[in-house]
Description:
With 202 residues, this protein is an alpha+beta fold. The chain has seven helices and eight strands; from the N terminus they run ααβαββαββααβββα.
Amino acid sequence: MDSHLISNIFASMKLLFAQGEYRPLGEMIEATGDFLRSGLVHDEYDVPLQREIDHVNAYVAIQTIRFGERIEVRLRETDEGLRAALVPKYLLQPLIENAVSHGMRPHSTLHVEICVERSGEEMLVSVRDDGKGMEESAVEALNERLRAGIASDHIGLINVAERVNLRFGADYGLRVESRPNGPTVVRIRLPIVWTKEGEADV
Length: 202
């Protein structure tokens, strides 16, 4: 977990307490508990996609309390059955965090859309935001670092890309598309791995 994010969460709690905003403080404590609970489970690599969605929902709840109407996240699915499929843990939340960290502009709402769809035996995941965007040269450099696993200020994306490559091989991974003033789209392609419960429903 990003220590900067955790520091910001507790700083926000302290501010809410000082301002006497006890209801949003309670909501933030509850959302933070949900967020940390899944993160503190060790010896767990693959989790059902539903768990990742729940983790993202807790993260978004925290950020909504912090930023109010300046952030809006929605999920679009073409196959809800994919929620039983296994994915690497922390697949989605770092992508949302990256959009918030690098895409949010002052005094405007950042819209983020998570799309999960099936293509044959593969799962296609994309996270699209309408934030600041990136220059073409910066996008090319970032995608090269993602391929090479070189650390950068987009450490969350590189971490996800490395884990997908290690888990499924070089044919699978993560790619970024963007232009100045957005949109920015992060795409991930994965093979579909079913849980036992998921296999029974297929």
